[in-house]
Amino acid sequence: MAKDLKEGIISERAGQKLGVYLPDEKKIYRAIPLGKVRKKTKIYAGDRVRGRIVDPQTFAVEEILDRKNLLVRPPVANVDRVVIVQTIEHPPFQHFLLDNLLVVYDHLGLDTVIVFNKIDLLSEEGKKKLQYWEEIYKSAGYDVLKVSAHTGEG
Q: Are residues 90 and 58 in the same domain?
């Protein structure tokens, strides 16, 4: 690695606009991928990259480092943990959707946390359903949190 190459993480992607965070600089730069990088692969949020600072706001991406994983939706790379937020009611809980996500994330080796939100809105029946599903997912080895964004509970 050349002495002046720096490593960073793509912190944002909005269309063709990229941001790269350089931990050593503690700063986000506008990232511009060089032609050889653009032609080789698409750049995703979370990609680890090497390149050079070309001016106080701009970083030229010269290389994308190997990814440990890549999610399609949302398109991000090098994910360590996934937090899946669900509700029991409002809208009604669909365990098949959650189960499908868990299978994919388990296959990718990701640490997954299940968060049940809107617990302040639960009916008595909803509270029983929450307890039922919480026990199932905890017994399967998942971390399960119960929260209310509205009241701050959890």
A: no
- Residue 41 identity (one-letter amino acid): T
Q: Which domain holds residue 141?
A: 80-146
For residue 70, is it within any domain?
no
For residue 29, give both structure tokens: 């730069």
pLDDT at 3 over 70: no
Query: What is the DSSP pairing of strand 48-55 with strand 17-22?
Result: unpaired
Per-residue pLDDT tens over the stretch 5-27: 999 999 998 877 899 999 999 99
Q: Are 81 and 108 in contact (CB under 8 A)?
A: no
3-class DSSP state for residue 102? helix
* Cα angle value 26/32/35 (rounded, 5°): 140
